[in-house]
Write a structure and sequence with these properties.
Helix content is about 30%, strand content about 15%. It is of the alpha/beta class and about 425 residues long. The strands form 2 sheets. Strands 1-6-5-4-3-2-7-8-9 form a 9-stranded mixed sheet. A 6-stranded parallel sheet has the order 12-11-10-13-14-15, with helices on both faces.
Length: about 425
């Protein structure tokens, strides 16, 4: 009953967001130093995705310098993802996010030794003054009709410009495909049945591999066809110093993420409390980003340590943890990729796209927990057939907020 109504509401919402994002794009300013003709022209990788999306892309991002040598690699993305990719690129360019203050959006070299010729304090505006070898927009650049980068991308000069057709959510949820002018659209990966626990080909990792391989073919770059581009965060070193800073013993605590950036994916605090109470002998440490400690502290279970810190420190603490527990979020991806035993509590709505990982990638440390009663309607992307969209937005996904804590407890025991 509710599915058609929710689809209409979803389409209207994204049409509105699309108009707002385009209007705000015109206020973005840019100014970058020009390259001389003798310099190798950069390859520009544009990432609209958030932390988890970029973690899943590290498998190919870390290889781009080798593929496109001697051309430097520039990364244009959200400032929050910088610690994930900075070691793999020659320049990191943060763009202002729609919900963020539009200040300090500079072009910042990842290392001065790279000789990329980019001024540290230059702003985003001057991308239009550059000539790139190619522009690769990641697969999140198009997403459900919300295309927030078209004004910037349309101004970029390059020999080749690529965008992915989109692992979109179906015609009901993504009726518009506003691709930027002049871009070559790589057709999307077709295998799979649209999502679900058993449809690994639909996972984002498969879409990434398909898209980037087609881009490399068009650019004349040869790769090993059998090479698995496994996501990695090997550059995140030991977290022993971070543990000492907070009085933690490496390997003797459980990292817990109580909140994500998407409240529809958050597990109810009461059920988290039930889960944590089942392990009185374990030290749980709640990690939150700066500015969110207040909203978490009100519902924090007794005995849980709360740490508010940066993503760089969070990654080091996760590396030293005995276990990570959290929702379908960027930190769950970080924990999985770093090899920490991970229990991820997921709504059925996204199963097969982000969690669980395809078995072929070999991440045996990941335990995905979802509600068994809603597997038949998985892949809905939260336009629920059982309730109005307003309930999902304000209270969270039905399949998640009704997920029994005993299933999470059983997964934690298995992981331990």
């Amino acid at each position: 009953m509710w599915k058609p109504i929710n689809n209409i509401a979803y389409r209207l919402y994204f049409a509105y967001r699309n108009r707002i994002s385009r209007r705000k794009n015109r206020r973005w300013a840019v100014r970058v130093a020009r390259t001389t003709d003798s310099e190798p022209r950069p390859v520009l990788y544009v990432a609209w995705g958030r932390i988890g999306d970029v973690v899943l892309a590290t498998g190919h991002i870390k290889r781009m310098r080798r593929w496109f040598h001697p051309n430097p690699v520039w990364f244009l993305g959200r400032s929050r993802v910088r610690p994930l990719v900075e070691p793999h690129v020659d320049a990191f360019l943060p763009f202002p996010e729609p919900a963020a203050n539009r200040t300090g959006s500079g072009v910042e070299p990842a290392a001065n030794r790279t000789g990329s010729g980019v001024e540290p304090a230059a702003s985003l505006e001057g991308i239009a003054d550059r000539s790139f070898r190619c522009v690769i927009a990641d697969i999140h650049t198009f997403y459900g009709g919300l295309f927030a980068l078209d004004a910037v991308l349309a101004a970029v000069r390059a020999d080749r410009r690529f965008v992915y057709e989109g692992y979109h959510l179906g015609e009901d949820l993504a009726p518009e495909r506003p691709y930027p002018a002049g871009f070559e659209v790589v057709p999307k990966f077709e295998d799979g049945d649209g999502g679900g626990k058993d449809s690994a080909p639909c996972h984002l990792l498969h879409h990434n591999a398909h898209y980037i391989r087609r881009v490399l073919e068009h650019c004349g770059v040869e790769t090993d066809d059998g090479e698995a581009w496994r996501p990695e965060l090997d550059h995140v070193g030991s977290g022993a110093d971070a543990c000492r800073r907070f009085g933690l013993e490496p390997g003797e605590f459980v990292v817990w993420q109580p909140l994500s950036d998407n409240r529809r994916k958050d597990y109810p605090p009461a059920r988290w409390a039930e889960t944590i109470r089942a392990f009185p002998e374990m030290q749980f440490v709640a990690l939150v980003e700066p500015g969110r400690a207040g909203e978490v502290s009100r519902t924090l279970p007794p005995g849980v340590r709360l740490i508010e810190t940066s993503l760089t420190v969070v990654m080091k603490l996760i590396r030293e943890a005995r276990l990570f527990v959290g929702p379908d979020s960027g930190l769950s991806h970080i924990a999985t990729v770093m090899g920490t035993p991970t229990v991820c509590v997921c709504p059925d709505s996204h199963l097969g796209y982000f969690f669980p990982y395809p078995e072929s990638y070999g991440f045996r440390n990941l335990y995905t927990v979802s509600h068994p009663d809603y597997l038949t309607c998985r892949g809905c992307f939260m336009t629920c057939r059982h309730e109005p969209l307003t309930s999902t937005v304000t209270r969270g996904a039905l399949c998640l907020r009704t997920l029994p804590s005993r299933l999470v407890i059983e997964a934690i025991r298995s992981a331990l």
